[in-house]
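Course exercise 7: structure representation. Students receive a sequence record and must write out the corresponding structure in token form. The form below is the worked example handed out in class, using Metallo-beta-lactamase domain-containing protein (226 residues). Read each field label carefully; the graders check that inputs and outputs are placed in the correct fields and that the protein name is recorded exactly as given.

STUDENT ID: A-19
EXERCISE PROTEIN: Metallo-beta-lactamase domain-containing protein
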Amino acid sequence: MTEQNDTQESRQAKAGAIIVPVTLFEQNCTVIWDEPGKKAVVIDPGGDVPKILEAIKQTGVTVEKIWLTHGHIDHVGGAAELRDALKVPIEGPHVADKFLLDNVVESGARFGMTGMRNFTPDRWLDEGDSVSIGGLQFDILHCPGHSPGSVAFFNKELRFAHVGDVLFAGSVGRTDLPGGNHATLINSIKTKLLPLGDDVGFICGHGAGSSIGQERMTNPFITGAM
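STUDENT ANSWER:
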């Protein structure tokens, strides 16, 4: 388990976050909480639920919700199990990813992942919606392309976003999976994420986080080098 201390947290002292890498895909399951209330959300519990539960225990937060950025197995494989363990609702992704959530078991089997369950979230999310945990509110941005129902979560006050697999440090989400489209993905990045502002830092679904400004300047998929 690695800890994420971003500049927004140190500047505002209103939120905390830890990243728990899960599954063979090393997916960034993320726990975000408000300060000082310690009310928390788990974003993208892809699997390894006992590991996630132990991280929650060590952090001392109270998880009240599960949020999903999209429906791929490495992001949702443990969602039903974690919902049952914590007795909390699942919010997201966009309903366009329903076909993925209806086939979690089949998707997991392809990678030897057992114990997965198909499920329906308690709330689908769409562009213009907002979600909250404790005193933190996040706006929902529908960002299709990696998957049809991908969403990003943006907190204006903290200048922080969780973008799932839409955008990475130096790269973008793959688009060769069912429902993926590269042109749609790039459009989502340019019309939804880049306008948030260069000062916005983000956590993504895999690897290190970055900032909108850094990616605008150096990401070859955005600059046109790719």
